[in-house]
């Protein structure tokens, strides 16, 4: 470490940085020491050359030769021989060192994490995205025990996906509120929804599309000037251990734009509860709380990789986000058409595991969905799918359960064709199915 460097920041942060970069300094020291040996040989060789030149021009005063002079002469030759041998040995060591160093460069690179760089990354990501994250307030008109109207308010987060005012959030953020204290509401969604921008301005919002199964919704506001949208990333390319940054409004709008950071702790997580199953979730230890649901989960490049949706309250550092790739086709279609219509196959389904439990049977596949009904005129009927067929794969991707199939279907559009793999009478079959509208 350079001794001339003077740290003028927070002493606590300096101490933490010292502790976290101790290994880095040690490695740097070893690297510096290694490169220092290289010029040392050159310096020694030059030194010897200079000394020999100086000695050849030096004229000694002639003295009578004697026993003492012979001893001295022998000693001088001995020293010179040692120096020459040392120089030769140094040259060999230097050559060998160069070979070893070249070989080490050919090895796979090692990576040293610098905590200071991480802090800089989080700050840069936050700065680039704060204007794209919004607060969402909802008002639900309820009636109390005396049939009086009462306005109940809630809040959440969202983010801008298009400069014209399209906002992505969670379905549960805009859902109507109910209470166990005697209040009731009509309809499934809040009566009033508003979007609060980063500058504090508030705009009324319209619900264009929502889906409680996916826990996703898209709102529309009418801004006076173009808004700043986020950049959508690729959630299919995520790796465990990548940096994850959440932005939102935990608990209240007073904490608007709160930034928390952590890592991708797990992928393809499944959560079951309240009558629904959510699959393919991203797990992160970046703090996700009430209020920042619907906000973006970003990677170190500043790209949205997920939509924050929930946390497990019984444990710390257990937050979950919906992969952004699930939302991408929905966003595209809503912007183009004003809504999103999910393709359907035209069948009534049940989880295979649930079916086997109810009817005490053991069918051939380990997992999948079983067909209970085929709608007349539907794509399923045209593909000759039948009751009791068990769907196991779509385009080579395994189908775990009904929710999983529904999620996978969001990536298809009307007119697309997919290959379905199914089991009938314990035999595996494949069929192409084209998604079409039907009555």
Coarse structural class: alpha+beta
Whole-number total of structural domains: 4
3D shape: globular
First-residue to last-residue Cα separation: 74 Å
Low-confidence blocks of residues: 1-65, 87-115, 179-186
SSE order: HHHHEEEHEEEEEEEEEEEHEHEHEEHEE
**What share of the residues does DSSP label as strand, in percent?**
25-35%
How would you sum up the major sheet?
8 strands, antiparallel
Name of the CATH superfamily of the largest domain: Trypsin-like serine proteases
Q: According to CATH, what is the topology of the largest domain? A: Thrombin, subunit H
Could you name the CATH class of the largest domain?
Mainly Beta
What portion of residues is helical? 25-40%
Query: How many helices does DSSP assign?
Result: 9
Radius of gyration: 35 Å
Instruction: Tell me the number of strands.
Output: 20
> What is the level-2 CATH architecture name of the largest domain?
Beta Barrel
Averaged pLDDT, please? 76
How would you describe the overall organization of this protein?
This protein has helices at 11-20, 22-56, 67-106, 115-129, 171-174, 324-337, 352-359, 379-382, 402-409, and strands spanning 133-143, 149-162, 166-169, 184-185, 192-196, 202-204, 206-211, 216-220, 243-248, 258-273, 276-284, 296-298, 304-311, 319-323, 347-351, 369-374, 390-394, 397-398, 417-424, 427-434. The protein is α+β, with helices and mostly antiparallel strands.
